[in-house]
Amino acid sequence: MIKIYGYPNTRSDRVNWVLEELEQEYEYHLVDLTKGDSRSPEYHAINPAGKIPAMLDDDLILTESAAIISYLADKFPEAGLIPAVGSKARGLYNQWSYFALCELEQPLWTISKHKFAIPAEHRVTGVINTAVWEFQRALELLSKGLADRDYILDDGFSGADILLGHTLIWGIAFKQEISQDNLKAYVERLQQRPARARARHRSSLEQ
Predict the structure, then answer these.
(1) Which neighbouring-strand residues pair with 29?
(2) Phi, psi for 104 (deg, rounded to 5)
(3) pTM given for the model
(4) Which one of 121, 155, 160, 180 is least enclosed by Cβ atoms within 10 Å?
């Protein structure tokens, strides 16, 4: 059975979400960040970087949320969460997945790092305003890309929406303004998906 190592309200929520959308059984293993579990030798044997999420599928270990989502969507293609390899839709899927990580998420991660995630002596609070500006720029691009569609691809909901939606929800939690009407509706639409609620409930049970 697929095993997921994670902690609530982190990128591991994305992996739970895709597995719930795929309606696949999985084991969820809590890596309690508040107790230093991610720094333990046992967890470092799974992910030497000490980060979450991590996935174990038989003898395969994957440690990046976007890679895990694409792998699982490809593994269970009948759910239709990822376009076929070599198709134009797959190219757009990849584009928006990478955009979620490189353009939309990175400003939020910069804010996190320089507020609390890295040691105080390495924080540069002056970059936070720049990161806020970068996030707003990314929102403008995403709003134009989404246009009047319900989801980022013409064919409907996909793993790319999980990456984008989770990141937008993270931005809201960080009190970043989302002023674009289509993005507000997009976030609400994604938050209402039953699979997301199940994923959040699953991780909360392990606390």
Answers:
(1) 5
(2) -85, -45
(3) 0.94
(4) 121
